[in-house]
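INFO batch 0412 | record 1 of 1 | parsing
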Amino acid sequence: MKKFVAIARSVEVHAAEERIPNMRLVRPVLLAASLAWSTPVFADETMPKGGASGAAPEKSAEQLAKEAQNPVADIYSFPFQDNIGLNYGPNKQVQNVLNFQPVIPIHAGPVNIIARTIIPLVSNPSVVAGQEGGTTGLGDINFTAFVSPANPGALIWGVGPVVSFPTATSPQVGSQSTWGLGPSVVLLTMPGPWVIGLVSNVVWSVAGDSGNSFLFQYFINYNFGEGWYVTTSPIITAVWNLSNLPSGSSAQWTVPFGAGVGKLQKFGKIPLNFSVQAYWNAVHPENIPSASWTIRLQVTLLL
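INFO prediction complete | emitting tokens
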């Protein structure tokens, strides 16, 4: 239809040139008027809603920081978390556990499936009194798949299975035979500058050596703006029914207290979330090696 209109206008102009001697002088004016008349139609048909680019407004550092603090956020994140255990074992040495924890959201209609994997690289000092050295290797990989509403309300939640794989490269850094399975849950709310919630799971051994575990992590974050925030997110754990402990041994608990500070910083269009935290393990196991303090350093790439 537009092509037909353009042809018709061209014919009319040429006909007018034949009828009006000075039409060649008037033609530029008519052409400008024609363009002015047609431009709104062109804009209405081709302009995306919301402006010339149609791009969503760029998220602020504070918004991205809050999303990074939400375990079931619809955002790709790639955290590297280094846990440094001080006064570990009988020789009071340093343990190091570097976790790579990619989080991949999968869209499934009204829900999202948040796939969270923890891949630990463990460096344990010797647990024999007076002996130097240690062992470094891959620990047991954990995988959790949270099912969470795509459009949550004030209370954000997710539930799903957690699976533990016997991927340890040495008995000193994990299990080489224990397969674990259990439920996991996350609950949180994000009023104003706050992000408050919890993550919990129970893993029972279903094959291989026996060994059950419980994890409960509460987190409280306050965001100041410009990406700065303070946080406390201690990880409370218990293990029991371990094959390397005497039968009837009680659960071995770790209960830390502490806090830290973080900053989300953009480098160009790439946001990185940095945090440093310190935790005193007020309760820690007596029958298995443990640390009295833990320093947690983390950097997370958000996409």
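INFO post-check: Confidence is low (pLDDT under 50) at residues 1-53.
INFO record closed
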